[in-house]
Request: fold
Amino acid sequence: MNLDSWEPKIVAFLCKWCSGAAAELAGVSRLLYSPNVIPIIVPCSGRVDPDLIVEAFMNGADGVIVAGCHTPSDCHYIAGNFKAFKRVYMLKKLLSDFGIEPERLKLEWVSAVESQKLKTLFDEFTFTIRKLGPLRVKIRGGSV
Amino acid sequence: MINVKMLYYPGCTVKRNALEYEKKTLEILSKIGIEVYELDNWYCCGAFYSLAKDDLMKHISGLRTLIKAQVQARKHGTNKLLTLCPMCYNVLKRVNHMLRENPENLDTLALFMDEEEKYTIGIEVLHLLEVLRDNIDKLKRLVVTEVKDVVVAPYYGCTVLRPREIAFDNAENPEVMDNILRALKIEVIEFPFKTECCGAYQSVFNRKIVFEKSGEILEEAAVRGANIIAVICPLCKYNLETTLLSLGKKLRIEIVYLTDLLSRATGP
Amino acid sequence: MSSEEPRVGVFVCHCGLNIAGVVDVKKVVEEAKRLPHVVHAEDYIYMCSAPGQELIKKAILEKKLNAVVVAACTPTMHYETFARAIEAVGLNRYRLEMAVIREFSSWVHADKKKATEKAIKLVKAAVVKVADNSPLEPVKSRTVRKVLVIGGGIAGITVALDIANAGIPVILVEKTPTIGGKMAMLSETFPTLDCAQCILTPKMAEVARHPLIKIYTNSEVVDVSGFVGNFKVKILQRARYVKIGDCRLCGFCERVCPVKVPSEFNRGLSDRKAIYIPFPQAIPPAYVIDKANCRHWVDGCDKCLRVCPTKAIDFNDEDKLVEEEVGVIIVATGYDLYPAERLKEYGYGLYRDVIDSLQFERILSAGGPTKGLILRPSDRKPVKRVVFIQCVGSRDINHLEYCSKICCMYTAKHALIFKERVPGGEAYVFYIDIRAAGKGYEEFIKRVQEEFQVNYIRGRVNRVYRDPKTGDMVVVGFDTLTGQLLTVKADLVVLATGLVPQLPYELASKLKIPFDKYGFVQEAHPKLRPVETVTSGVFVCGVAHGPKDIAETVAQASAAAAKAMELLYSEYIVKEPLVAVVDRDLCSGCRVCVGICPYGALELVEGKAKVNELLCEGCGACVVACPSRAIELRNYSTKQLLEMVKAVVK
Amino acid sequence: MSEVLNRVVEYSGKNPYACYQCGTCSAVCPMVRFMDIPPHRAIRLLQIGAGALVLSSNTIWICVSCMRCVDRCPRDVAPGVVFEALRLITLRQGIDKLKYEEIPNIEEAPTLAIVSASRKLTG
Amino acid sequence: MNKPNIVIVHGAICGGCDVALANSEEAISKILENIDLAYWSVAVDARLSDLKSLGKIDVAVFMGGVRTSEDEELAKWLREKSKILVAFGSCSAYGGIPGLAALTSPIELINLVKSTITTSSQYKSIIELPKLPELSTYRALPHVVNVDIVVPGCPPPIKVVNEFVNVLLKYIAGEEPIGPLVIAGSKAQCETCPRKPKDLSKLQIPSIKRIYEAKIEENRCFLEQGILCLGPVTREGCEHSCINVNMPCTGCFGPLPGFEDVGLRYIAGILALVAVEREKELMEQGLAKILDKLVDRLGVLYRYTLPRSRLYMLKLSLEGSEYAR
Reply:
């Protein structure tokens, strides 16, 4: 792979109510941020299956962001954010168990007004991934 | 009776200015079945807890004392470290607390120490008042004489009750000493100046302040009919007494260590 | 999932230059055309305009599209517009997806090439999702036209009356033996100085005689199940030992009762008997026996029973568990005062002449323990000098971090009434800031300061203690404006204690309503949905939601009533159908989903999980949690999300 | 932000900007009447970048770290801790505020008074 | 009629599977009756060369994981040669316990063995390790070649062994194998768990405990007692021999159909449920503290399935291994 032309691929799972709304606000506020981050809107950070994150890595993502509403009480679905926390916390540990940098996965709470925080998150995460370099995947995993 | 063991840290002032306090205290403790072991080669506690975040160096002497206690704790089979002087209590307990809250500081401090073993934050720092409070029933049983004609204003000073994270009673209206005295049938007055500042170490360079602060305490106690102020701190005692002298014995009031009163009630 | 092969149309909007200025829309169209399932793609300057919508409709009909992706702004802006457009030509609205290429691309990136690439990926994701979106119909259920109001203070009373007057039955549950709440304890109300009882008691009486309001006093809600429109609640009605209809309030029983205990209503400033009525205008108008203190259960005393002329006393009365079905629940559980004894420096609990604000209300009240005379509690000496201390507990990280909002005003009111009643009296108020933002409030404060010459001291109090000679309270404080240490001797010290919510944790979790870190109920949206909670069908009003005064409470209560009626106006509850569904063939009955669902929407029926579509809010926590992958979220299925992930990274 | 304020934040870990000037510290301070600047005003001066005025006052040297304002401060600004930082700014320049030879009663004073005073007033 | 033949071949194996097969009289007698036992080095004295000399193979049973180049070669040869290939036992099917070593490099493993050999020091310098076949990337059998039948279990219980032989006989009778067929249920252990609660209330996991830390109540769901049980993510079909002796399921029957990765399902479902009632009170730090009590993550989550996990696949693909598929 030509490292000069390499661009980090980053998927950001944003919950519809807080971080997704922050992304909309970032748009309305014309905050320029890293185009490497592609958002996928989900109902809640609690809807983000660890499988989705691994799927992203397996298909060539170099980093994954999960963003939800602030704990303890901002979650539109009462406590989906805590579920996301537990899942991401364990998945990060597993990633490092398997020898993959856990920094490639980031969980952040971003409220609907924190568009600036979202921008910073996207930019800084892109920078982090740029430093870590590409996560190369040649062939996909399969099943029986 | 099964004796409770405790390590004992006297500190400089007790050994230099308050030997009588120590003597009476140790007597009382032995009466209630507490065996104390004075730390061998005890070291300065640090005298005043440094409040700065970046000033870890100043906690070294406190830590060293705690490590000494840890070593001797194994020998005597107790992790309790008794203090009489409120300043020693304050510093040691706060160093202990700080290490418990920020264990990473322990690693930094360890860099300054070559000989000592690693501190496991297992020492429990106690002040005399806590020990007496926990043995109040035993104290009651020891009463042999009614201490007559004595009206006491309990005086706690600042350092056993502040800051909140090391306090064993509410600093705005503590009741530990009041309860101990009442348990021994000694008359105690309602005294709002229990924790008013006596002037502290200002006595070495600004005696005017000490006279004014301690004067207020003395006067309030006198107005409320006390003839004794019970203290637990050698510095408070010194400040109150020098102030009393400067007032020319106008007030008929005596400054007495708490344990002195206890030993009056419990007999020789 | 639709059974027919997806035929997707992609419509890329220029949004003038908003999108087209950065994103190469033509290229997006070209790329879209190459995607699987896509049979049509085109761009237009304003898709949301009438001609734009016509374009979509025409394409649907001509190309037999069965799914549509509009690549434009956010769905928040125009989902409804396009959904209606496709519905107009017979397509289900859930067969529409929007690719947000404006807010997520053209507006946030300057690099045209990268913005275009990203827009293409967003379109790809939308296409794979819409291809698998099921056409759905809204979920409907019949509603029970009845409302449960929890809490019988001014908030609960207002809600109950508003709703009952509109013809909907109300069940009002109150924990204490009477409705009226804290407002019944107040003397006068700011800023108009109306007598609280005079405005409240007629409302209480109206509640009592309203044919559509059923009151449960001495009662608590102990269980809640069901969902919006169909709640089932269990109410524990504690035994009163006095038959409400038979009691004639003659008071004979009270006179003969030998037990005296401090009166809750007068906050300990006077005594009551073990058989008592909290205050003369209590609703329901009947005595009550306080079992904990009554001697009947100790030594068989039955003096009251013997003198009761109507035989209203029944020692065999028992606690009852009542079940009710309601469509809406309104939480109006109110507040209590922060325990002032936690602030030892002020001597509350140590000195009888240091009292809290509600105690002072009782002293001021004509029906209170001193009949409205301002006497100090310790020796009933007339009070000549009062010190008020504000922010007792409030705005303090050691106690309550928040501002309790009403204390500035009620303290001013206290000071005013005191000055009015005690000619030549002196009043001092220690304060940090004066918060008097309300209609007529600032004027009221100014009046208190100018006309009544209440001495406002900007600063805090060191401590309060008693002068041993005079028995006066000594207040030592600091005036920050002059830098002076002040000592004020006073007959009485009144603490403006902060408010703490009273909603029990268990009840909140049964109602599935979140609360903030202080215990106040969290509203669904702080601006736009201030009386709704996140659980549909549960509303909140009054101090249970946050500190507020009577006027605000009443306004919020009426708002909650209106919201409840809006919900119950229709015979059916209609809900978004984006809910979870269980594949019962895959479910192994492990109960993980039941445990993880925050709404109690899942239960096990015959060993398999089942979703209650009316309770499910569609968060998807269970979908992820199901170890057997037996649960799917409609139109957010794992398969769809996996495909979307692939679409954006490959 | 002034240099003094920066240093205060660094040494003490407390944030003077959290102060809303309620005056609790000045009310509870046992030494306030001997200070030329009362504690709450010292914090205010830090907020407006006039930390130098506080440094040159006697306030920080009169404070005996009794911790009363630290316990009672409703905003955790903890003036008593801030003052320690201010003392250190001077002491770390090698300026001592106590001369042992001038202690009048050094023979009779309890050891802890002398040690404490040197801890607080010398570098 | 010419009897079809069967060969039983070993990869990396402890020998438990042989015992399990031999232990079932019914299975053995049915095999002997209907099939010609052409090769089983554990039971019938034979060498690998005997196997290689067989003209045809109808059924090949592979026990153990694929660890060495020799194993791999053998597996590929069997696939080519036999009509029906069976992955027998959890090692063969999912990787099994030796699969936990997959994350450690072969060189590290060899060095570890070398460093722990104990012998009197005077001989130490002259001791040499026997020549070992080259260790390669650890894989389960289906990972290397396609298999027709999977017989899970560590070792497979008698019931499963018997069922397997019945299936085998059907195939021999002419039914085409519709592989891969797993001789187990398609639902989770919870479906048949003897501890299934009567009232079917919601599941709550208060904390995480290791087995020695708790007095485990019998007849109560392990998870409710804070004991991590892999039942919800594991195929049913075993005889609950662990659960019946008050031990939680460790997952030897492998993942449920439809997803490969036991660990990911577990963190998504069961671990997300931990302390669910106290989330707001514990906050993130508190929850992290509880989750940290799961110390041996791989040993608990992937005891039998690590080589088949998606993260292992990802790792292999990152290393550029040809086995990442």
In short: Chains A and D do not touch (no CB pair under 8 Å). Residues 92 and 102 of chain A are 5 Å apart (CA to CA). Chain A has one domain: 10-132. Residues 137-144 of chain A have pLDDT under 50 and may be disordered.
